[in-house]
Amino acid sequence: MAKTLEFPRGFLWGAATSAHQVEGNNKNNNWWEFEQEGKTKELSGIAVDHYNRYEEDFDLAKKLNHNVHRFSVEWSRIEPSEGNFDPGAIEHYKSVIQALKKRGMKVMATLFHFTLPIWFTRKGSFEKRENAEYFLRFVDYIAQELGEEIDFWITMNEPNIYAGNGYYSGYFPPGKIKKAVTYLKVLDNLAYVHRETYFQIHRHFKDAQVGYSHNYSYISALNENSVLDKFASLLANYFLNKKFINKVKDYLDFFGLQYYVHTRINFKIGGNYLFFADEYGVEKHVDTKYPRNDIGWDIYPEGIYHVLKDLSKLDAPIIITENGIADREDKFRKEFIQETLINVYKAIQDGVNVRGYIHWSLMDNVEWHLGRGPGFGLVKIDYDKNLKRIIRPSSKFFAKICRSNELEVE
Ligand code: BGC
After folding, report:
1. Sign of CA dihedral 384, 385, 388, 393
2. What are the tens digits of pLDDT across the range 110-126?
3. Residue 318: pLDDT above 80?
4. Residue with the nearest Cα to atom 5 of ligand 1?
5. Residue 46 CA, ligand 1 centroid: distance in Å
6. How far apart, in whole angstroms, are the C-alpha atoms of residue 214 and residue 299?
7. pLDDT at 277 over 90
8. CA distance linking residue 347 with residue 337, whole number of Å
9. Is the Cα torsion angle 216, 108, 205, 8 positive or negative in sign?
10. Among 157, 50, 51, which Cα is nearest to 110's?
């Protein structure tokens, strides 16, 4: 018999992007430089030209019934050289925000989504705690110029991934490999940066909604009957998730959850349970009832239920600020969204305070070091046809849920 799962009133439904992945020509940041050095699969170039086509893209989001949109403001555009704020860049983001408001969408702005101005990286970026002052000056400027119109603030995106990929695996700039001490220091500094940013925004706006986005994979033992696997998985969960969260949990108006994969831990002497970027002892991708996605990740939507339960002790409400699947052919996305939302609903029924679901991503984009290959978009980009936007069938399924605030299941 068909059942209707009704989501809480005022639930947020939408999609996310990040500046460097979609805008194009972000020439003053660390990723652009990293690309020119040949450290990525391809150059971002004009990306998907969202910088010029945002009106068209927001028309699509509106058509798909989204009531919120998450994007990032690009610090390196706004402050291309130290202390010089570009009025043209800030005007651009004012227009972006107006375009969302005009379409009746709530605005969620990320202040740091993996990219940093080159001048800031020359100073040692977040490796040095005292550099926080430069970021906070930028935050102050954003608060003054754009703050009135921002409904939700994300101070930073996935500090654990930024630090792990930047200082352990080397996939992200600065491309450092196995720098464990720096990795830990950067994470600690980022927790400090989050707290200070939280205060900074609240000094401007007492009632602001400020959170950050955490990449929280569902970590469990590869062999549920092995005490050692279980022990190692608790350790990994502590180091990758809990440690950072404990440092910021009292400074959150909401917690931004980003769930993608199930990570299974297989205890090995000398295994890496701290960083994950080097995957020794970690089986990220084992066979499940689903095939893998475009980039080889397994598909495990039920993991979000466990993660939400794990987070239920937080005082702050949870907004899912990213969840998605690399699936160019759109073979699995509909079922993935459906199964994910069934599990989100189940967690809500268990009392977990979830306030929204934001899909990654509104459209295909540049997947960092992997280039344009993986298709994460609700909207497909046809790279051979002048970056034509094509609505994928699964996004129509999602649009229906966004409109009705309910999910019909068999
Ligand atoms: C990031 C996005 C990225 C997505 C898919 C998240 O880690 O915030 O920028 O594209 O996952 O890998």
Report:
1. negative
2. 999 999 999 999 999 99
3. yes
4. 367
5. 19
6. 19
7. no
8. 15
9. negative
10. 157
Residue nearest to atom 3 of ligand 1 (CA): 367
Assess whether the C-beta atom of 364 lies below 6 angstroms from ligand 1.
no
- Residue 195: which of 238, 155, 146, 159 has the closest Cα? 155
- Out of 70, 112, 360, 367, give the residue to mutate to test ligand 1, the one with the largest number of ligand atoms within 8 Å of its CB: 360
Whether ligand 1 lies within 6 angstroms of the CB of 161 is answered as: yes
Res 348 pLDDT > 90: yes
**Is the CB–ligand 1 distance for residue 294 below 6 Å?**
no
Centre of ligand 1 to C-alpha 110, Å, is: 13
Q: Which protein residue's CA is at the shortest distance from atom 12 of ligand 1? A: 367
3-state secondary structure (DSSP) of residue 389: strand
Helix axes 333-349, 303-311, angle to 10 degrees: 30
Q: Residue 260 pLDDT > 90, yes or no?
A: yes
- Tokens representing 101 are 């408001």
For residue 323 and ligand 1, the question of a CB distance below 6 A is answered with no
Q: How many CA atoms lie within 13 A of 207 on its CB side?
A: 3
Distance 366 CA to ligand 1 centre (A): 10
Structure tokens at 318: 């949870």
> Would you say residue 41 has pLDDT above 90?
yes
CA distance 24 to 371: 13
What is the 269 CA–ligand 1 centroid distance (Å)?
Answer: 31
Dist. CA 408–CA 3, nearest whole Å? 6
Alpha-helix runs per DSSP H in 155-239: 159-164, 180-204, 227-237
**Ligand 1 atom, smallest distance to 376 CA:** 5
Residue-wise pLDDT for 172-183, tens only, equals 999 999 999 999
What's this model's pTM, rounded to 2 decimal places? Answer: 0.98
Residue type, 260: Y
Instruction: Report the DSSP pairing between strands 318-323 and 354-360.
Output: parallel
Distances (CA, A) of 274 to 172, 178, 233, 239, 243: 18, 11, 10, 5, 11
Ligand 1 pocket, 157 CB below 6 A? yes
Identify whether the C-beta of residue 165 lies closer than 8 Å to the C-beta of residue 171: yes
CA of 1 to the centre of ligand 1 (A): 37
Q: Residue 294 C-alpha to ligand 1 middle, in angstroms?
A: 14
